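Q: A reviewer asked whether we had any structural model of the full assembly, not just the individual parts. We don't, so I'm hoping you can provide one. Inputs are below.
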Amino acid sequence: MEGLLDLLGLAKSAELLSLSPPGWGMNLLRGLGKSLQIAFGAFGFGLVIGLFGAYGKLYGGPVIRDLLAIYTTVVRAVPELVLILILYFVGTDLINQAAEALGYGRVEISGVAAGIWVLGVVQGAYSTEVLRGAILAVPQGQIEAARAFGMPPVMLMRRVTIPAMLSFALPGLANLWLIATKDTALLAVVGFSELTLETRQAASSTRAYFTFFLAAGALYLMVTLMSSALFQLLERRSRRGQPSLKGAGR
Amino acid sequence: MKLKTSLLAGLAALALGAGAAAADQVKIGIAAEPYPPFASPDSAGNWVGWEVEVIDAVCKAAALDCVLTPVAWDGIIPSLTGKQIDAIMASMSITEERMQTIDFSNPYYNTPAVIVADKSLDIEATPASLAGKIIGVQASTIHQAYANAYFGDAEIRVYQTQDEANQDLYAGRIDATQADSIAMADFVATDAGQCCEIKGAVANDEAILGKGVGAGVRKGDDALREALNKGIAAILADGTHEAITARYFTAPIYSE
Amino acid sequence: MMRMIRPMLMPHRLVLIALAVALAVWCALTLRWDWLPKYLPLAMQGLWRTVWLLVASTVLGFLLAVPLGFAQAVGPWYLSTPARVFCTLIRGTPLLLQIWLLYYGLGSVFPQIDGIRDSVLWPYLRQAWPYALLALTLSFAGYEGEVMRGAFSGVNRGQLEAARAFGMPRFTLFRRIWLPQAINNVLPTLGGETILQLKATPLVATITVVEIFAVSSRVRQDTFVIYEPLLLLALVYMVIAGLIALAFRWLENRVPTRRPGN
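A: Here is a predicted structure for the entire assembly that you could use as a starting point for your response.
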C-alpha cells in the first residue's frame, strides 16, 4: 500500500514537472536560463570592476585606495539583500535622471540588466580582493623583466600580469562564480523571474511546495557541481608547467 | 582568454539590456507574485486572470500599446515613481495614504474585505472576536493597514503574497486572514481552502480600505490617467467589463 | 590609541572624513526621518531578534560543524559520506530556497498529519522563528563543517601520536588535544564566517520573522519612504559587522599562539 502511494506521489510530481504545459518544468528551465544569464553577466561585470579595483588598490593614489577600501568594506559588511534593494531603487533612478538630464528621455532597463548591475557591484568588491591577492602572487621578477623590455603598461597587463595571475585567481574566482549563481536567488525578492521566483510561482499555483523546491534545489546543485568540475579542469590547465602546489600549506 | 570573453559578455549584456525603449509603449506593472483569480502565471508562462483581461480591454479601448511588466508587489510603488513602469494595475485600492505618493484612475472594481478562518473556529470579523488570535495579511496592502489599525490585540503576521498567507492558513499556522472577498471566495473553493470559510466582512473604514481598485499612475501624469479613465469608462459602458466578469465570477464586482 | 588615530590625520583622509561628515549632515537634514520615533521601539525589537538569531544559529551551527568536520576528516566512510553529502547540499543550493523549503514545504504536509494540532510541539511549529533558526543553523553547519574538516586535518600529527603514546583515552585526546587545536586553526576565519552569517539573517524576513530587515520593509510599506530606512539599515549592519570583527580580534589576541616563524 505504501509503495503504491509512493509511486502515485512520484507520478504526480513527474506530471507537475513535465516540460509541456500542464507541467511546470519548462518554467523552471526558463528561470534557470535567466538565473545563469544574470549570474554570468554579474560575474563578468564584477571581474571588470575587480580588475580596475585591484589595480587601483595596488598602484592607485591614496585617495583611490581609500575609496576602494570603503567600497569593499561596505559591500562585505552589508547583507546582499539590502544592497540589492538599495542598488535596484537607486540605480534605475539615477540612470533615468541622468538620461533625462542629457535629454535622452527614459531609458529602458530590462530585468536582466538591472540584475547584472546589482549583483555585479556586489561581486566587484569580492573580485577586487581575489584579483589583488592574485596579482601580488605573481613573481615580481616577471613584471620587472617586462618593464625592462619597455613593454607599455596595457600590454604588460594583457601579456604578463593577467595570464600569470590567472592560476592564483582561479580558486577564488570559482568560489565567486558559485556565489553569483546562488545570489541570483535573492533577486526573487525584487520580483525578477529567475529560477527561485518561477519555483515559488509554480509551487503556490499548484501547492506542491516540496516537489518544486526540491526540483529547483536539484537544478542549483547541478549547476554548482558542474561548474566546480569545470573550474577544476581550468585550474589544472592554467597550472601547466608550474610546480604542484599540493602540500604547500593552506 | 576565458577572462576576456566573459568580460565582453558582461558588457554586451549590459549594453543590450539598457537599450532605449520604444517611446509610446505603456508598461503596466502587475504583481510578480500570483494573485488568483485576478492575475497569475500559468504553466506556459503566460499571465492569465480577470485583471489581465481587463488590462487588455482597457488598453484596447484607450488605444494604448501596453506591455505587462511583473514587479515585486512590495516594491511596486517605488517602481512606478522610479519610472520602471508607467501604471500599476495590480488590484491596488485607492487610499488616502497612497494618494500622497501617486495618482489613481477611476476605480474598475470594488469588493469588501473579509476575514477567513478555519471552519472549526468560532470567529467573527470583529476586533473583539479576533483578540489573541494570529492573523495573516499580505504586506503593503489595505488589509495590513486595517489589521494594524483595528486588530491590535491580535498577533499580525505579514506575508509577501496572499498565497503564502493562504498556505499558512491551510497549514494551521495562522488562525485567520484578512483579504479581498473575491480572492478569498476563490481560495475557499479550492482543495486546500476546504479547511476554511469566510467568516464575514470587516466593518468598512474608507480612509484605510479605500474607494475601490484603480490604476495607479505617477503624480502629474494626467495624460495617461485620462486615457486609462476613458478606457475604463468605455469597457464599463459597452459591456466588456461585464462579459469578462461573467467568465470568472457569479456576481458583478463593480458598483458605482 | 595613537596608533589608530595617526593614520587618520593624513591630509587626504581629513578631506575624506570632512566629506563623509558633510554627507551625513546632509542626509540628516534633507532626508525624511520623521518616521523614526514611531518605529524605534519596533526597530529595537527587530534588532534584538536579528542578534538573537545570529548568536543562536552560530553557536548551534558550530556545535554541529564539529562532528561534521571530524567525520569528514577522519571518520569511516559510513560517517564521512553523509557528512560530505550534507555539506555539498547546503553549500550547493541558495539559502533562500532552503528556508522556503523548510517553512512552506513542511507547512504543506501538516494538514495531512492527524493530531499534530494537539501535540505539545504545535505552539512551536506554528511560529516562524524555529524554522528560521533551523535553516540558519544548518546553513552555518554546512559551511563551517567544511572549514572544520580542514582544521581537523591540519592538526599536527606528532602531538596526536605523543598523546596516544602517553596512553590518553580517545575521548580525552579529542577533547584536550584535537578539538582545541582545530578551533585554534579556524579562529582567524570564524569572524568572517560569522559576518557572512549576519548577512544571511535578513532572508528569514521572507517567512514572516520580524527582524530588523522586516522592520525596514514595514517602514517602507507604511510610509513609502524608500531610501532612508534602507540606508539606516545598511549602517546598522555595518556597525554589527564591525563589532563582530572587533570581538573576534579580541578573542584571537587572548588565545596564546606560537605562529610559525617568530
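A: Points you may want to mention in the reply: Chain A touches chain B through 52 residues (CB under 8 Å). The first helix of chain A runs from residue 2 to 17.
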